[in-house]
Write a structure and sequence with these properties.
- This protein is an all-alpha fold.
- It has one domain.
- The protein contains six helices and two strands; from the N terminus they run H-H-H-H-E-E-H-H.
- Strands 1-2 form a two-stranded antiparallel ribbon.
- Helix 1 crosses helix 3.
- The longest helix has 79 residues.
Length: 236
Amino acid sequence: MKKSRKGVRWRELLRNKLFDLVIVITGITIAYELNNAKETRDDRNLERFYLESMVVDLDKDILEYEDNLKEFSRDRNFALGTLAGMQKGADISDSIGIAVLNISSTKTFEGHNNTYSTLMTSNGLNLIEDQAIRNLIHEHYRLYASIERFETEHTDLIRRVNGHFISAIDYGRAGLVIDQRAAINTESKNLLTLCAIQLQSGIWRYEESLRKAQDLKALILSNSLVLERRQSTTSR
């Protein structure tokens, strides 16, 4: 007897292979999507971290802006008050010394931009999804340069003020005027006028920076990621 030979069942074999292929593709797709989901979660967590860290920096900037603004406003008012007395021909021998002392001791802005520097050096700014936040970040930290220019110009003017008044006013005795000519001459008046103008310019720059910092902080705190974290923290 001849042995019967079974034919190869190509259709069944093909069906099995296709099934195996579908399983492999499905597995790869699921793994890819899971990896994407993980990366997305990581990106969002990193974005939230950056935003929350920037709020901490902004709080420090806002306090420094407000503190320096108070001093600059006080110095400007001393200069303007002394100038008004000069215009009236009043005796300003007491006020001019105090004005010069206040103008000569000025505050500088330290700035707290650690988070911003990290964003810029690591391209982390691309993680911030909200375009309005990204724009306002640039606007706020760009104003650092404006404040720095003011400080440089004001420091140069302070040197001129000290050079003029150093021999006429006793700094160690609360600004006692020892040369009365300093209280009446034109150069003294001009220097005080320049100081008042420059201090006002600095005040405007600080006020603009303060507004940008406050707006940026408010916008960040309204972001859904930060809001979600704040609400979950509050509910605990």
